[in-house]
Amino acid sequence: MRPEQRRFVSSVRESMLEAAEEPHAHALYWAIYDDESPVGFVMIADEVDTPDYVPHFLWKLLIDERYQRRDLGTATLDLIVEHFRKRGVAVMWTSAMEGEGSPVAFYERYGFQRTGERHGDEVMLRLVISGLRRRSLADACVPAVSSCGVAPRTSARHSRSSAS
Q1: What's the whole-model pTM score?
Q2: Residues 6+ apart with CB under 8 A from 150
Q3: Which residue of 38, 60, 93, 95 shows the fewest CB atoms closer than 10 Å?
Q4: pLDDT tens profile 29-78
Q5: Around Cβ 43, how many Cβ atoms within 10 Å?
Q6: DSSP per-residue codes, 94-163
Q7: Where are the domains of the chain?
Q8: CATH class of the region 3-153
């Protein structure tokens, strides 16, 4: 991530430690690849055990700064939306801090809308999946990339807490 983005999202290591500390959130996480190169990380909370957590929640999305502005974040969101859609989920959620380098504008361009609520010091955003145009995996992959993908990585303990 770019230097101005560092205050908005934790590292992969910190994200995985956070997930381990929140076992009731049942985190699922994946490495993001551009061909064979790892370029990012995404983590969601899908089904949760307690009302302390938000289900169907995009918890983390990180793209290496060298690979940003190549539609890899959008392609990753397309795959996460499809993951939820296949499971019958109508709405997904995320939250993000505001300010210079914030991902809020990126999420809003994708179709997320602010709810007016806050999650700690972050704005809550929701995406109505049922109304989105369904895109194929080929549409989700960047044309300049011969293959794209999100490779699943889960631990013995799945978890989640606050988002970005």
Answers
A1: 0.74
A2: 30, 31, 32, 33, 42, 76, 79, 80
A3: 38
A4: 898 998 888 999 998 988 777 777 787 989 889 888 888 888 899 999 99
A5: 27
A6: EEE--STT-SHHHHHHHT-EEEEEEETTEEEEEEESTTSPP--HHHHS-TT-S-EEEEEE--SS----S-
A7: 3-153
A8: alpha beta
